[in-house]
Amino acid sequence: MDFQIPDIDSLLKSPPRGEEDIEENQDSPLSGPYEAIAKKTAGALHRIRATLAKAKVNKNNRKGVLDPTISLIAALNEQAAEIATLKAKVSLLETETSKVTDLKAQMAYLKAENEKLKQEDTTKSTEIASLTEQNVLLKAENTMLAQRIAQPTPSSNGHQQEDKKKMTFANALKKQLPKINKKKKFVSLVYPKDDNTSSEETKSTLYSSIAPSKLNIGVKNVKKVQNGGVAVERSSEEQLKKIMNEINSNPTLQGKMEARTPVKKNPKVIVYDVEDSMSKEIFLETFCFQNKVDREKIEAAFNLKSKSQGKCHWVLQTDPTSFRQIMRSKKVFLEWARLSVREFLRPTKCYKCNRFGHISTKCPNQEACPRCGEEGHKRDDCSNDAKCINCSEAAQKFGRNIPSNHETSSQDCESYYRELKALRERTNYA
């Protein structure tokens, strides 16, 4: 704002007649937020001048009045100009602040979009990996089936001729069996309250206490599991809830057993050839520190003997994130050594009856030969042809032509790979 104050000499001159009534009401040439202040100060100055002229105050006295008035008006105008400048700066700051706020909002939006894209990328990668793994398995199964078709017919003595170059299911899958996302299953686990109860006893009690027909539900499968339990599979979530409620509220079963949904277990890894003189705690602390693994997310399950003298293999249970981190490295650091690490997958197996799903201390069956599956003799005393009891029973149960001319410990055992698949499905890879 630029308001020119008249000099004292021009103000001391008497205004022309009639100017006294005009000057206060004339339009100011100034514009801006403080135009009113300029207008009023200009009008006040001219009124004072006119009043002094009308009163015929002498020149010296008029000067004594007008001098301080001019100084006051100049100070007011200076303050007005400063206020205008400050207000302009404030307005500019508000504009810039608004821009910063908008930029922050845009950054937050872009960050959220970026996280969303990352999540979508992870999901797509998982889906692609799953489809790739399924493709690998299907190719392996197709190869195995084609080889079976091409196999020679049984010889006169009733045994198939051995073809050393034949492709078996295990040979087609020399690497670890891939994880497959199968159709969702609706399964509940039923466990006895008494630790001494076998799976067969649990199954018998369940059958005698509950009639699925009265609940209007269908049971797809009942399978023995470890710790004396059974797994009961239904066709839907609704049927699953219905039979679980019946088991847990049935007066006959109160205090005897309970039904619960299965919880996936965290994956395991095995670290090979650790010095067996190293204690568990020192091993864990050193392992986690050197390999940047969260100590709270990992625990030592157990160790196994190594063929190397003075060594052992440690089996560790981890959360899914730590598992992926460890498996990506394939080697881990431990003091001065760099050790091999692999995923640890071992289906539960009884070495008394040679079946899967329970251990020998919980086995209700008689001891059987791991070579032929018959009772009454040991493996070293067996002169029978090899016959896997697991594959033989599976062939009868599912009505499939499953080869059983191998020992239960054979790497070509389909039952073993079926258990391996089931174990993966029960593992929380997240």
TrEMBL record:
Gene3D superfamilies, sorted:
Zinc finger, CCHC-type
Q: Which UniProt keywords apply?
A: Coiled coil, Metal-binding, Zinc, Zinc-finger
Q: Which residues form the CCHC-type domain?
A: 349-365, 369-384
What are the GO MF terms of this UniProt record? nucleic acid binding; zinc ion binding
Q: Name one Pfam family in it.
A: zf-CCHC
- List the InterPro entries hit by this protein, alphabetically: Znf_CCHC, Znf_CCHC_sf
Please give the SMART domains that the UniProt record associates with this protein. ZnF_C2HC (SM00343)
Which ranges form a coiled coil?
76-120
> Residue ranges of region Disordered?
1-33
The protein in question is named: CCHC-type domain-containing protein
Species per Swiss-Prot/TrEMBL record: Araneus ventricosus (Orbweaver spider)
Taxonomic placement: Eukaryota, Metazoa, Ecdysozoa, Arthropoda, Chelicerata
